[in-house]
Amino acid sequence: MISASKLLEMKNNQFKGDKIEKEVARKKKEMEKMQEAAAKRRMEIEKKELAAIKKENDAERSRIASEKLQLNWIKWNITCLGLGFTAYKFYYTRLENHQSPIKHYITGQEIGMFLIILGFVTLTFATIQHKKKIEKLKLEVPSMQYSLSLRLSYVILVFSVLVFLIVILRT
């Protein structure tokens, strides 16, 4: 038969085994919770990185749209310059050939000057608006590249002033 001390020892071992199993189960639950927390942190970090990338992409799309709009304003200015200079040249050619102007109440020179001024003024306002938009976008995304159409606008504005001065000084 089994002695009382052996029986007591077996119960203690069984009790210790149950304790160990409970401790192992508790450790497993803690590990699972830690893994879930780590997975949550990774997901949050990935979401933040994706949000930053999305913000940068949205800013780039907005910059490209603004650049396209500015290039269209430049195209409008060049068209006004060309039409204005052509109208003025037509008027000037008629005067050189000793022909009368087409109508007496408005001349080609006035139409030409109006178109040149119209192109200059619209491009000036568009350039101011574009510059503000680009500065605002640069505050959001500092790594954004500079605006090439803004620099081109400055050159075209100077050219517009020169054409206007040519038209005025030629009369």
Descriptive notes:
The protein has one domain (4-170). It has helices at 4-96, 108-140, 148-170. It has three helices and no strands. The protein is mainly α and 171 residues long.
Indicate the mean pLDDT.
Answer: 84
Tell me the number of helical segments per DSSP (H or I, 4 or more residues long). 3
Largest sheet: none
What is the percentage of strand-forming residues?
under 5%
Task: Please state the CA-atom Rg, rounded to the nearest Å.
Answer: 39 Å
The helix content, as a percent range, equals: over 70%
Q: Structural class, from secondary structure content?
A: mainly alpha
Q: Can you count the beta strands? A: 0
Distance between the termini: 134 Å
The geometry reads as rod-shaped
Write down the domain tally: 1
